[in-house]
Here is the input.
Amino acid sequence: VTKKIGILGGGQLGRMFLQAAYNYPFVYHVMDKAKAPCSQLCEHFYEGDFQDYHAIMDFAMPLDIIGIEIEHVNTDALQALEDNGKTVIPSPKALAIIKDKGLQKQFYSQHAIKTPEYYLVADKGEIDIQRFGFPFVQKQRTGGYDGKGVQIIRDTSDLHRLWNIASVIERFTPIAKEIAVLVALDQQGHMRTYPSVEMVFDADLNLLDYLFSPADISVAQAQCADRLARQVAKSFACPGLFAVELFIDQQGELWVNEVAPRVHNSGHHTIEAAYTSQFEQMVRILSGLSLGKTGLHHAAAMINLLGAEHQGVAVVKGIDELSMLDKTYLHWYGKTTTSPGRKMGHVTLLGERQMLAQKIATIKSAVHVVSF
Ligand code: ADP
Here is the structure.
């Protein structure tokens, strides 16, 4: 009988998963809020709250295999599904650790994985300002994403901004580069990694500008990143995709920042640039097939299309200019409404890094997600 695969979360990651998954002979069910990006594509779309134990159980009990496209799901329900003989990827135990940044950091300590020094606090009264001096980093333990829930405290004048919540307090790393390595682990225990990705920041705006892969780092650094990423994924000892985010500090040393146990924004270029996209890889992993080849057949860049300073019904301006660029691929996520900074789509560009700078500039000036 045909395998029934269920995904918790129906955002853009789930949507790009479906686009790859429909090339494989399985049946797909997705659960999220009404009108989530998957709802337009998925024939078995269920409206429901993936934080709700009973909603997950009702959704997933008739299915065979359960995956996620977001960490903030009810892991008790996933554990109950696993106890009922369902295949759950990543394992509920790994997910429960990863979705709490405090447990995740402790996990790194237990497994001797190199990560910036830290301690945990229950509230802001427990923060010891002397311990790391300024600047230091405060991260809320749960619920954060895309840098929301992370703040850098630069000096005493920032102290009033401290959140009074359970957090990780981290030593500030002077970062030279931020990179990511995506690791794929199949149900048979085989592991493959994708070439490293570099997040290029806009020096003026201090915002993520674009991603580039392979990263412009030394061979030794690339090997070290690959080794650290494998160490992280292996330590969780379960199948899945693991996007490991790393820092290269100003001395050239590598540190593990965090991991996402799922397809990830830093792997979107693999749709056009790799032999097997991260989304196809996820289908293979969930369904128990072998891993596809992770190499890149082209160097690539990826730019997120973020909502501009508008709120309302989304419109893409500049799509004509975009369509005139060659080796340039638009991915629109099908979200009806835009808001400032919301991820509305992305563009992948193939080619060598130097060649891409001009195209990236063109896209940034011509393409905007706005509202009427
Ligand atoms: P999120 O899960 O929201 O993406 P991250 O842990 O990746 O949060 O942190 C967001 C950003 O904050 C990182 O990309 C990095 O630029 C900065 N940052 C996080 N931890 C540190 C640190 N220890 N030192 C310096 N900068 C940091």
